[in-house]
Amino acid sequence: xxxxxxxxxxxxxxxxxxxxxxxxxxxxxxxxxxxxxxxxxxxxxxxxxxxxxxxxxxxxxxxxxxxxxxxxxxxxxxxxxxxxxxxxxxxxxxxxxxxxxxxxxxxxxxxxxxxxxxxx
Amino acid sequence: xxxxxxxxxxxxxxxxxxxxxxxxxxxxxxxxxxxxxxxxxxxxxxxxxxxxxxxxxxxxxxxxxxxxxxxxxxxxxxxxxxxxxxxxxxxxxxxxxxxxxxxxxxxxxxxxxxxxxxxxxxx
Lengths: 120, 123
What we know:
heterodimer; A: Alpha-Beta Plaits; two-stranded antiparallel ribbon; globular; B: Alpha-Beta Plaits; four-stranded antiparallel β-sheet
């Protein structure tokens, strides 16, 4: 099964880290991704730019309504994801627990409904 | 620019409705989805989309003091939760807004456009 691990963390805490601390965290992500690839569970992943760069779009009564900022102002915002191919949800939970943000934020594990869908 | 389009909607509106009603609603939205996929494919042939299972199937994982804490999800306690994500390369934000506005859920939920960070790519 394909499982998405959605990473939620406090952006302010990240902003407060030194360059060196950030590099250390990123290194842990790269190492985890490498290990997941070697275990054949890694399908992909991305880091999202901060919510400051977010734009929210709604269509109401046929009108496109655009607002700056994220969908919701929350303390812990979605900051990225891993996409895993796992035998069970429990296996995905094991991998999710190893994502560095699990130690201070939270990782939500959700099965993907259909296969990776090439919409083209 | 690489973008993530996050699809937020109130999934509880799907709870408790029958199979037939769900099928009818899906069929009703189908022309909009076809338009979306055509436009997306034209704008970026390499676009990918993932639809997530219902948030009621989510698990939330935290590690505190080395202890793993797993709870039933979803993480967010907002009415609308993320239900899907598109990853696409588009020329600019205006085009991302145009594409996002074509997603059927934009009419009853919200589409959040987030550029992808250009470092620390985990893929």
